[in-house]
Amino acid sequence: MEDIATRFAAYLQHRMPAVSNVEIFGLSRIYGGASRETYRLQATWEEGGRKIERPLILRRDPVASLIETERDIEYNAYVAFHPTGLPVPQPLFLEIDLKWLDRPFFVMEQIVNSAAGSAFNADPYGANAEKIGRQFWSHLGKIAGADPKAIGFADGLEEVAPGDCWRVELAKWEKVIDEDELCPQPIARAGIRWLKRNPPPPATKISVVHGDYRTGNFLFNGEGDITAILDWEMCHLGDPLEDIGWALSRLWSLETEERPGSMIDREEALRIWQEASGIKIDRKALLWWEIFNMVKGLAIWISAAKEYESGTNLDPILAFASWMPTDRHNRILAHCLADLVRGGRT
Predict the structure, then answer these.
(1) At CA 326, angle to CA 314 and CA 331, rounded to 5?
(2) Which one of 49, 62, 77, 243 has the lowest number of neighbouring Cβ atoms within 10 Å?
(3) Which of 26-30, 33-37, 70-74, 145-149 has the lowest mean pLDDT?
(4) CA-to-CA distance for 8 and 267, rounded, in angstroms?
(5) 306-314: long-range contacts (C-beta < 8 A, 24 or more apart)?
(6) pLDDT the model gives residue 242
(7) Would you give the end-to-end CA distance of the chain in angstroms?
(8) What is the pTM of this model?
(9) Beta pairing, strands 226-229 & 218-220
(10) SS3 letters for the chain?
(11) How far are the Cα atoms of 44, 115, 169, 184, 281 from residue 154, in angstroms, in the given order?
């Protein structure tokens, strides 16, 4: 940690040549992220005769990760949405030169006096559950309703046709399972077969898809206000229903299936999203994306098991992800597929 602090202080001095006496205090690792090493820290420097203190977040590429993502796309999501008023941290620096911290990284402001809820807490938001839930779904609707080109998110990204969104995403996650499974995955394979036999209609809009919008990936304060939407590492262009399917997952609400993410009623959530996004939800298409996200989740946990088993990354979060979420997602997907078969939707 001391080495990282010293080297990061030198980096900040390099990026801010007009300041002096840059120092780093309280550097500590935040565990639990899927694709980057995340650190919180306090930076101080002197500028114009004044001492400046600023809490920062450092996100560094790991040696190996649960999911492979592009840090410049993640960083660009913060750049694109910060000016819109969406609660995201202010992005500060993106660095790909390996001489500073051995691996690429980016820096953003740290949101203080806020906390994240846990999907493993039966009641993570207490009396603020309804207030937070309304914001949660309204913010997701605003992400879906934004014009990716107008806000600059689409710059440099390959365009995807409305009719290809499902095909592109399913192929991506099926490939992860093909390459990383340590043993046969019959339930995931059954899900993939169902998805291929029952493709959804084309997306009504190409939107920014956060990719991991759920309980645990946003911060809120004591008043019940969402202060930051985090973890954009899987963001991409696609069908906005993909994000809804992930946020609705029963994986994020252990004992309150009728209230996704332990916040508000499912139907009220969807109503708020439609109002905020201006997009009407096709329920049959949403079902497809819900099943897809169960397969996607399994692909992520399967990849975690491969990384941990091979010794490439011995972060305990990978061992946990390969066990508990895998078992629960297998059970959820198996029950859903059984219901579809009983309903004649094979």
Answers:
(1) 170
(2) 49
(3) 33-37
(4) 47
(5) 306/180, 306/181, 306/182, 307/64, 307/65, 307/66, 309/182, 312/63, 312/64, 313/62, 313/63, 313/64, 313/65, 313/66
(6) 98
(7) 53
(8) 0.93
(9) antiparallel
(10) CHHHHHHHHHHHHHHCCCCEEEEEEEEEEECCCCCCEEEEEEEEEEECCEEEEEEEEEEECCCCCCCCCCHHHHHHHHHHHHHHCCCCCCEEEEECCCCCCCCCEEEEECCCCCEECCCCCCCCCHHHHHHHHHHHHHHHHHHHHCCCCCCCCCCCCCCCCHHHHHHHHHHHHHHHHHHHCCCCCHHHHHHHHHHHHCCCCCCCCCEEECCCCCCCCEEECCCCCEEEECCCCCCEEECCHHHHHHHCCHHHCCCCCCCHHHCCCHHHHHHHHHHHHCCCCCHHHHHHHHHHHHHHHHHHHHHHHHHHHHCCCCCHHHHHHCCHHHHHHHHHHHHHHHHHHHCCCC
(11) 35, 30, 17, 37, 23
pLDDT digits (tens, 9 = 90+) for 274-323: 999 999 999 999 999 999 999 999 999 999 888 878 887 777 777 787 78
Burial of 77 (0-12, 13-18, 19+ CB in 10 A): buried
Q: What is the pLDDT of residue 34?
A: 55
The CA-atom distances, in angstroms, between 42 and each of 25, 85, 116, 137, 219 are 5, 25, 20, 32, 19
Per-residue model confidence as pLDDT tens digits over 96-155: 999 999 999 999 999 999 999 987 788 899 999 999 999 999 999 999 999 999 999 999
Give residue for tokens 């939707």: 345
Residue appearing with tokens 């209230």: 259
